[in-house]
């Protein structure tokens, strides 16, 4: 026999406390989507790292180009999708790879394919959002870009700066030093310092970590400080399971020992995976929606308004050149002018609201940045 609730006992309870549970159930039922772009030249361990992060094999049929093909090799975009389910939560992961980036003799335009792809996804989302059927919009926007920096350089190269400078206002960029087992701890620390200095000198802003709320526990705050201090992440990837001291670990075997990719003393791999999946995946999506996409949307609406103004001027000129014998045509022109005026007014109101919202967001980010304490 079912137990009936005690209404007298819960007389002051109205049920609003269950709203988070309702949102949780609906979100889990719908599932989650995340798009990750991976950029960097060949040989930096991008494929291995992605497979290690998500415990899958996205590059089963990969073919490596020979030297002759690399001379004229161009950058292209390849999308790979995998479905991940963990404890009943479904994640549809899309990895956007850019094979050929930085591999050709002339790499001046390697950045162009990446920026065009990001803009195309924004444009497609804007078109779908402006349409009649908005119920099942597919979000293919890039939520995060992992940019791989080679460990054998002294800092960022001109090719790296060219791409990051063009992308940092379009997508959340996270820098990764690939194959960090080539360097010792002191070399990793110096390389990180030089990279951060180069970014500051070139006024480039990477993804900004949100500040911890005051009610967060001390362990989470400590974890957040460690993640911020690890930028850029120096990582090692491996799909090989080795046995060390009776324990199975994911690592790389060398004549002088084993590099355990999940050991924080050897690599920032665990920190990168924690940041990308466990703690900041939703914030990466929110930043894409609230900052980068809103910037793109404001530009689109501004262009539409300017086009409408030009059309209005053209209609006015056409109406002035019309003669009195074409009253019907003039009447039709007046009707079109009224429609255009209404459309322009509506667009300008939307643009004003979006600019005010972006201004407030920018002021909040500046206040947050001013309050950041370097670790």
TrEMBL record:
InterPro entries, A to Z: G_SEPTIN_dom, P-loop_NTPase, Septin
GO biological process: cell division
Key word Cell cycle present: yes
Homology family: Belongs to the TRAFAC class TrmE-Era-EngA-EngB-Septin-like GTPase superfamily. Septin GTPase family.
Source organism, top-level taxon: Eukaryota
Entry GO MF terms: GTP binding
Protein name: Septin
Species this chain originates from: Drosophila melanogaster (Fruit fly)
Pfam families, A to Z: Septin
A single GO cellular-component term on record: cytoplasm
Keywords per UniProt: Cell cycle, Cell division, Cytoplasm, GTP-binding, Nucleotide-binding
Keyword GTP-binding: yes
Compartment list: Cytoplasm
Main location per the UniProt record: cytoplasm
Matching Gene3D superfamilies: P-loop containing nucleotide triphosphate hydrolases
Domain Septin-type G per the UniProt entry, residue ranges: 30-303
């Amino acid at each position: 026999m079912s137990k009936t609730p005690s209404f007298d006992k819960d007389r002051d309870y109205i049920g609003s406390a269950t709203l988070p549970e309702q949102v949780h159930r609906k979100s889990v039922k719908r599932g989650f989507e995340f798009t990750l772009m991976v950029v960097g030249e060949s040989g930096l361990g991008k494929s291995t790292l992605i497979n290690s992060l998500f415990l899958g094999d996205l590059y089963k049929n990969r073919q490596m180009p020979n030297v002759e093909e690399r001379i004229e090799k161009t950058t292209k975009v390849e999308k790979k999708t995998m479905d991940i389910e963990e404890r009943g939560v479904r994640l549809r992961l899309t990895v956007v790879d850019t094979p050929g980036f930085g591999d050709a003799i002339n790499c001046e335009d390697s950045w162009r394919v990446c920026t065009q792809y990001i803009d195309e996804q924004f444009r497609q989302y804007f078109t779908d959002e402006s349409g009649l059927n908005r119920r099942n919009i597919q979000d293919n926007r890039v939520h995060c870009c992992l940019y791989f920096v080679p460990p054998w350089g002294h800092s960022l190269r001109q090719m790296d700066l060219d791409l990051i400078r063009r992308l940092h206002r379009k997508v959340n960029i996270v820098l990764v030093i690939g194959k960090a087992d080539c360097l010792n701890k002191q070399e990793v620390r110096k390389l990180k310092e030089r990279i951060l200095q180069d970014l500051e000198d070139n006024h480039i802003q990477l993804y900004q970590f949100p500040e911890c709320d005051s009610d967060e526990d001390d362990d989470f705050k400590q974890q957040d400080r460690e993640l911020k201090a690890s930028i850029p992440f120096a990582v090692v990837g491996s799909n090989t399971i080795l046995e060390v001291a009776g324990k199975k670990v994911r690592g790389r075997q060398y004549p002088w020992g084993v590099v355990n990719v999940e050991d924080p003393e050897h690599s920032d791999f665990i920190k990168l995976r924690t940041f990308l999946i466990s703690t900041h995946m939703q914030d990466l999506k929110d930043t894409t929606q609230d900052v980068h996409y809103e910037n793109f949307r404001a530009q689109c609406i501004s262009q539409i308004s300017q086009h409408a103004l030009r059309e209005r001027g053209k209609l006015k000129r056409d109406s002035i050149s019309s003669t009195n014998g074409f009253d019907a045509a003039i009447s039709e022109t007046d009707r079109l002018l009224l429609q255009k005026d209404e459309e322009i007014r509506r667009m300008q109101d939307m643009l004003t609201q979006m600019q005010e919202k972006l201004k407030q967001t920018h002021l909040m980010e500046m206040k947050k940045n001013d309050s950041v304490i370097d670790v």
